[in-house]
Amino acid sequence: MQFGLSEEQAMIVETTRAFVEKELYPYEAEVERTGHLDIELVREIQKKAIAAGLYAANIPEEFGGGGLDTPTWLLYEKELGKANYALHWTAVARPSNILCAGTPEQRSRYLDPCVRGETWDCLAMTEPGAGSDLRGMKATAKQDGSDWVLNGTKHFISHADIAGFAICFMATGEEDTPRGKKKLITAFFVDKGTPGFAVRDGYSNVSHRGYTNAILEFDNCRIPAENVLGEVHKGFEVANTWLGATRLQVGATCLGRAERAFAHSVEWAATREQFGQPIGKFQGVSFKLADMATEMKAAELMILEAGWKFDQGTASDADMAMAKLKATEMLAMVADEAIQIHGGMGLMSELPLERIWRDARIERIWEGTSEIQRHIISRSLLRSFGA
Ligand SMILES: Cc1cc2nc3c(=O)[nH]c(=O)nc-3n(C[C@H](O)[C@H](O)[C@H](O)COP(=O)(O)OP(=O)(O)OC[C@H]3O[C@@H](n4cnc5c(N)ncnc54)[C@H](O)[C@@H]3O)c2cc1C
Asked: What is the tally of structural domains in the chain?
């Protein structure tokens, strides 16, 4: 067992941290104020991220990415996660690992431009009537000759406004199982501009200003057979194999934001005086810090352990679910207590705390809600008893 960082990991953490502080923090206030991310600014930061070797760091080296192993990637995510989400996700993009599952032609058409920073991807599963229960999706793809014809609606689709294409999961049939009929799902690449494919503005969102979600509409959208990603009817298998660690990515960015809120809290507790002494002298404040530090440490160990197991091929669904659950719930607690320690100042946008508090809310919902993570964990405990 080894808990320390290697020299290389320490260097990546240091480089990413310095980049985030120098290139992302200065633009946060503007993005937060306007709720808008200027594409010229994105392009400027993107060039620097590529030059620093920080772009697409999750993608294997053989495909042009940084090739980080999972724990190192999560340490890098933790640093990026400290900054405004729209800025780090767009300007220091980590293309979806599912793009690596494509054929060589699909990789050169979709993965390579994302790695070079020429475009972005987005992933469309959720529908107005199918959220946690994704298999209940109604959007369909039907074969017509060698083409597929797509119909239906997806919503809450992150980054679809700037993405050059979407990876869309559609119902392509049904099979009989002992528990009744089960929908079969297939993943497809759909290029922006394909007739019958429209991207509409989504809803405005309390978390992550400057970032958008969109509604995708498919109206007899015809795409060729070569746009199938993976095997027909095996869309969820492709997703499970290649998107496995995205729950840890969410958790790792939460660790970073919690650390930022915590650093402000310690400094405030040590310097803000009331009743003639620093408020950190009052147990009502200092014990909050102790609990925050303990929760942060537990969450970080769980995220890194799950990442390590992921690379060993031994991570269970419950390991991933526990790590995501712990990190996202830890951030909610730390963000809330950070505001409490700061009193009224905690709610003012002069400090990043109200933003971290708002941004924390989404993390317990996307990539599987906290209830769904608990469901996965509890099933792993009870299944073998037939309960
Ligand atoms: C801002 C934002 C961006 C997103 N980006 C994307 C994206 O890019 N691509 C994409 O495909 N999706 C995306 N999503 C969708 C996201 O993954 C879903 O919102 C999430 O999975 C929950 O689905 P839902 O919102 O429909 O809630 P529902 O599934 O309707 O859940 C409502 C409530 O019921 C609970 N619940 C549901 N089922 C159970 C159960 N079995 N046991 C216990 N409780 C249960 C949930 O935990 C929740 O509390 C995004 C969502 C948001 C809000």
From this structure: 3
Checking if the pLDDT of 1 tops 90, the result is: no
Residue 378's pLDDT band, with cuts at 50, 70 and 90, is very high
3-state DSSP assignment of residue 212: coil
What CATH number is attached to the domain comprising 325?
1.20.140.10
For residue 19, being part of any structural domain is answered with: yes
The CATH number of residue 65's host domain is 1.10.540.10
112 found inside a domain: no
Confidence of residue 89 (pLDDT cuts 50, 70, 90): very high
301 shares its domain with 234? no
Mean pLDDT of 68-76: 98
Pocket of ligand 1 (CB under 6 A): 122-126, 131-132, 156-158, 205, 213, 362, 365-366, 368-369, 371-372, 375
Cα 157 to middle of ligand 1, angstroms: 12
The answer on pLDDT for 64 being more than 90 is yes
Question: Is 360 among the domain residues?
Answer: yes
Are 228 and 249 part of one and the same domain?
no
Tokens of 301: 């160990």
My answer on whether 376 and 253 are in the same domain is yes
Q: How far is the CA of 131 from the centre of ligand 1 (A)?
A: 4
Residue 339 and residue 264 share a domain: yes
Residue whose entry in the numeric block shows the structure tokens 């494509």: 102
The candidate with the shortest Cα–Cα distance to 197, out of 242, 165, 158, is 165
What is the residue range of 381's domain?
A: 244-385
The pLDDT assigned to 387 comes to 84
Average pLDDT value for residue range 147-164: 98
Residue 363 CB coordination number (10 Å): 26
Contact 332, 260 (CB under 8 A): no
Distance CA 362, CA 131 (A): 14
The pLDDT confidence band at residue 263, using thresholds 50, 70 and 90, is very high
Burial environment of residue 165 by CB neighbours within 10 A (0 to 12, 13 to 18, 19 or more): buried
Segment 316-331, tens digit of pLDDT? 999 999 999 999 999 9
